[in-house]
Recover the amino acids of this structure.
């Protein structure tokens, strides 16, 4: 005699519960992990903690921009030949006196920067206020033996670079080379000693070599210190950017875009 088998309610409930639990575990396991969702749910939105760290990260980022000050300090400066026949013996005289076209050829921008008229009366000199045209031979020109500058707050004035345009622009070349060299150096320090140490040492180098560069006694020294400062100090920006990258922000892409600007 065959006995009919009936489902046990307790057994059915257990199996259903087990499948539900297993299904839940399986769905959790298969769900992709979203870092932004985890940070938002666990830490909350952009609050005081994030704002405080943004301000702290912004300070070294502002300092890192000082490396690019050469754009202003080594900018092209209007200059002309120094006219010793008219009493000029330095580089800080009036840039455009009334008699300037008597001694310097005229150009589209006003007067020439790198040439002057040849003196016609070597034994006769004028003054800073009066320098007549008969002192010069306007049929021939020659190069400058010195320069007078329109501004006195640039590297061009300090080191008397004058018409050496390639030498003036070499500061930008040193900056580009240093920016290239800093990447492996900062990366190695960050991996070995941590990003915080990399940021601290970069800020220190940025300030130290920038201060020394301000007291350069010649242009080669200025260029060498600019290269060292960029190589050892421009990691300030990249280290600060990485710190800002880990802050929880609901508009992270907008935040990164603003930092990059």
């Amino acid at each position: 005699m065959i006995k009919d088998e009936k489902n046990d309610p307790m057994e059915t409930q257990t199996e259903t519960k087990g499948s539900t639990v297993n299904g839940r575990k399986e769905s959790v396991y298969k769900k992709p992990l979203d870092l932004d969702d985890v940070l938002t749910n666990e830490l909350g939105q952009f609050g005081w903690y994030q704002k405080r760290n943004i301000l702290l990260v912004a300070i070294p980022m502002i300092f890192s921009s000082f490396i690019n000050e050469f754009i202003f300090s080594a900018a092209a400066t209007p200059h002309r030949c120094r006219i010793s026949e008219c009493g000029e013996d330095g580089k800080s005289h009036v840039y455009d006196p009334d008699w300037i076209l008597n001694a310097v050829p005229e150009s589209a921008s006003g007067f020439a920067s790198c040439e002057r008229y040849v003196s016609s009366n070597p034994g006769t000199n004028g003054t800073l206020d009066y320098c007549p045209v008969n002192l010069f031979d306007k049929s021939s020109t020659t190069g400058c033996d010195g320069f007078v500058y329109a501004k006195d707050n640039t590297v061009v004035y300090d080191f008397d670079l004058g018409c050496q345009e390639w030498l003036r622009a070499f500061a930008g070349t040193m900056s580009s080379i240093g920016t290239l060299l800093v990447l492996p150096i900062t990366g190695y320090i960050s991996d070995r000693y941590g990003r915080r140490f990399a940021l601290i040492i970069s800020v220190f180098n940025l300030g130290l070599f920038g201060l020394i560069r301000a007291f350069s006694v010649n242009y080669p020294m200025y260029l060498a210190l600019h290269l060292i400062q960029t190589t050892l100090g421009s990691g300030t920006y990249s280290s600060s950017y990485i710190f800002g990258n880990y802050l929880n922000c609901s508009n992270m892409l907008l935040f990164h875009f603003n930092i990059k600007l």
